[in-house]
Design a protein that fits this description.
- The protein has 2 domains: 88 residues, Glutaredoxin; 108 residues, Glutathione S-transferase Yfyf (Class Pi), Chain A, domain 2 (Up-down Bundle), CATH 1.20.1050.
- The longest helix is centred in the middle third of the chain and has 22 residues.
- The protein is 52% helix and 7% strand.
- By secondary structure, it is of the alpha+beta class.
- Helix 1 packs parallel to helix 3.
- The protein has 9 helices and 4 strands; from the N terminus they run βαβαββααααααα.
- A hairpin with a 5-residue loop joins strand 3 and strand 4.
Amino acid sequence: MRLYTYWRSTSAYRVRIALALKGIAAEQVPVHLVRGGGEQHAPAYAALNPQQRLPTLVLDDGTVLTQSPAILEYLEEAFPAPPLLPASAVARAKVRAVAALIGCDIHPLNNVSPLTMLRREMKQDEAAVSAWIARWITDGFRAVEQMIGEEGYCFGGEPGLADLYLIPQLYSARRFKVPLEAYPRILRVETLAATHPAFMAAHPARQADAEG
């Protein structure tokens, strides 16, 4: 397997955590999202992933998978142990709701493309961009704080799909200095993940392409 990744990409970060949790070995191929106008736009990578975004997972037989939700679903179905989703349909729906809130309602608004548009096309300064980022993270985290459990990870004693979305988004929140004191449940999950080997291995700072 090959995972096309970028150390600071939260979407790729989700997949790195899942691979580490499930003990799946994958060669990591860095794709720099900024250098040279973005290596994701190079012809070779564009041929692999027509959307020219990360992550991309190439299976051993050459099959190409894109979009982190689809990749995570594949990993869960192909490598079911340890599970990322609980047994009951209702519990799975609650986990997926938190994952979707982060993956659909927070992350896309803070992605490279909209931030680049704010800066270049809409001529917004860094203060305005930071306010934009904080607005959507704050709105989303306010809801997540109420949706997750009162102990353990997001939904119990073992990490699951919701945690794979939450921890990378927390990394982004801290990167952009978004205040987090109002979210004790979320911070509890962050503290637990900080000592878990899979989350530690997947952390951006520990990637081969990490920058200072």
